[in-house]
Amino acid sequence: GDIKKGGYCMLKGFPCKVTEYSTAKPGKHGSAKATIVGIDIFTNKKYEDTAPTGATGSVPNVTKEELEVADIDEDDFVSVILPDGDLKTDLKLPIEDEELYNELKKVWDEREDKTIYFTIQRAVGKEKFIAARSK
Hints:
By secondary structure, the chain is mainly β. It has one helix at residues 98-109, and strands at 8-11, 14-24, 33-40, 46-52, 63-72, 77-81, 87-92, 116-123, 126-134.
């Protein structure tokens, strides 16, 4: 009952943003069923699952953080400055998502004297860039 459209849940073991949620009335031999459809927040792959409405499902802890970009090297690895001042250098631009990759690259290439910030989304031990802005 806590899962809502626009929220997050684990579908088939993947952290997903819920795009559809519907329930079917209880049948002759059981409880009401919920059908949940979601998009994986890292791969954009669609997943669907059905479960009794009383079942418990897991909800991933999804966080977003905006970090200042220090550099992008020729192999598309991004160096970002963490809030404590340390440098994180193990994040790579999302080459599999061509639209997002081009947006991030464009903001970086057109930076001139501006400070660039990339937003990182984290869940279940994974990280992904999701947005960019200049200031």
